[in-house]
UniProtKB/TrEMBL annotation:
Residue ranges occupied by any ABC transporter domain in the UniProt entry: 333-566
Assigned GO CC terms: plasma membrane
One Pfam family here: ABC_tran
Family annotation (PROSITE patterns): ABC_TM1F, ABC_TRANSPORTER_1, ABC_TRANSPORTER_2
Membrane topology: Multi-pass membrane protein
SUPFAM superfamilies the UniProt entry points to: ABC transporter transmembrane region, P-loop containing nucleoside triphosphate hydrolases
Domain of life, source organism: Bacteria
Swiss-Prot/TrEMBL keywords: ATP-binding, Cell membrane, Membrane, Nucleotide-binding, Transmembrane, Transmembrane helix, Transport
UniProt domain ABC transmembrane type-1: residue ranges: 16-298
A GO term, aspect molecular function: ABC-type oligopeptide transporter activity
TM helices/strands, residue ranges: 12-35, 55-78, 133-151, 157-174, 238-258, 278-296
Cell location: Cell membrane
UniProt name for this protein: ATP-binding cassette subfamily B protein
Amino acid sequence: MRRILTFLGPYKIGIAIALFVMLVELSVELFQPFIIARIIDEGVMQEDLGVVFRLGGLLVGLSLVAFAGGIISSFYAAHISQSAGLDIRSRVYHKVQAFSFSHFAAFQTSTLLTRMTNDVTSIQQTIFMSLRFFIRAPLLVAGSVVMALVVNWQLGLLFLITVPIILGFLFWVMKRADKMFRTVQAKLDTVNRVMQDNLSRIRLIRVFLRQDVEKGHFTDSAQDLRFQTVSALRMAEMTMPVILLIMNATIIGVLWFGNIQVQAGSATTGEIVALVNYATRMTGALSIFGWIIMMVSRARASSVRVGEVLDTETKPFTDKKRTSAPAAVNGRLTFENVAFHYPDTSMPVLENVNFDIKAGERIAILGATGSGKTSLFQLIPKLYEADTGTIRLDGKDIQEIETADLRQHVGYVPQEPFLFTGTMRENIEWGKEDATDAEIEKAAKRAQIHETIMDLPDGYQTLVGQKGVNLSGGQKQRVSIARAFVREPAILLLDDSTSALDAGTEKKLVEALQEYACTTLLITQKISTAMNADRVFLLEDGTISVQGTHEELLKESELYRKITESQFGKGSVSYV
Ligand SMILES: Nc1ncnc2c1ncn2[C@@H]1O[C@H](COP(=O)(O)OP(=O)(O)OP(=O)(O)O)[C@@H](O)[C@H]1O
């Protein structure tokens, strides 16, 4: 919670104004029963209309002051709570942007979404309510006790007995509710996760006839959330009847003992009316305590969850020497004794990887699943850092090139093509922000997707993704490739990105790569693709076991021969 309170720092002046006007409003409220007592004792009982009008006028004037105070306080409370909420949300967003991939594994997407939306909203609401009511309510209770003692200290003592009992009870409830609301937020995460999984796998769920099972998962998690929320709300709501019971007993006590004092002449009717008035105001203030407990407990749980994201240590990449970007690079790529393991495991994924790729060379990388092909790719744009060894671009250690500058020169087409909701043009333009129409069309033509786009109802302006047209796997792959092409990168990384293309389209695409003259690394399972590359690297258990032209590998590698035979048929190797 303290962590979150630091976000209120920039709004100190606004908070001071809101609290000041709230105190004015509160003072007026505390003073009102005192004036009413005087109107009764000095005006009504003495039949002095002058006093009634004078003090009555004062009462109306003070009410107008309280009204103005309430409006000003609401204005500031709304402004401060919304602004602080925006600041928290932006900070969380920027933190998440700096997350490493292991952080994303620790915080699932669904929980990050809940933290950025629901949790921040709960904090926002609590800031607003605190500035308007939550600070005011305890002050009103304390002020009423003091004023009651001033008006009649013997009867005021009754409040000194009952109020601590109520506060003790509320403290007990708060401790329990805190834990319960933390569980509620966790359950909300689960519902969001189940929903997200369901929506993203909807086709698979239908094909595998898993609707009923998935419906069951959703119902279970939603029921669980309902059960936990009801338990927490019940706990907070039960405060109201308990407070009403104790405070009504106190009012009866005031009337009982007050009657005795009035009979004895040691108290006036006005004093009794004032005390009952204070008791009623106290009851009102105390009864919103249940609500305060609920919101504060929820906000505390949310603060912990938001704090967990903000306090996550993010390690910036070691951009050792901040050399300015080489405006143009040739694209020579060298790996020297590179080894790598993922931060959350100790198993080495790549070991002793060595190669030197000339600028403009096209390299096909073959290897069994899990042999480390994608991992090797991820080291090039520094998505991960190598444990040992050196990776060089044009002879320069990439550790010495600023990450953003390095990535300027890399085009990456991941294994899973991903399209954003937007037009076809926007999807390609995503690779280069200020790309011209001519550049976009050139990239699309080279990626063999231009004609498909032209056949769509609105050409490049056709919407894809949600509310738009759906594309086939191969079409998505080609849009994804066009997105990388439009950058005109020096290094192009294609991670099995032609797997869904037919042989003819793939051939044309590989030919287009030739005129493109960028250094290309292409992960593939197909020997037909590998044959068109300048060289082939065979990756086995995280290391390059053999590298050379297709013909050289046929001679040198038993495994490569076997893969070729499995794709072209036995005996094919001699004439391939
Ligand atoms: N984020 C990760 N954290 C920990 N280990 C990982 C991670 N990603 C991959 N691995 C492990 O690293 C090894 C190499 O994975 P990688 O994805 O590089 O293989 P690949 O050759 O590209 O496989 P495929 O052909 O199936 O895509 C595998 O054993 C995999 O389990």
